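Study this protein:
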Amino acid sequence: MPNEPQIRALAREALRAGKLPPRDPDRTWGGPGADLPCTICGVRITANTTEYELQFKRMDVTALDRFHLHLRCFAAWEMERTKLA
């Protein structure tokens, strides 16, 4: 897994590229990883690792956008997005 400065840089890039919204999620879930890649760092989040699933409602439909993040990647996204506000 990348170190802290690398994760922060990846979070900033995800925000700039529109991979993750800069707003509060509509729902946040935490639990064992679902073996899906992290939206920030791309490393799979295994079942023995805590995963945060962020859900955002789309404005034009009833569907949800879902993003899976490691705890450290979630914290980096949270810090970087609040700096933009």
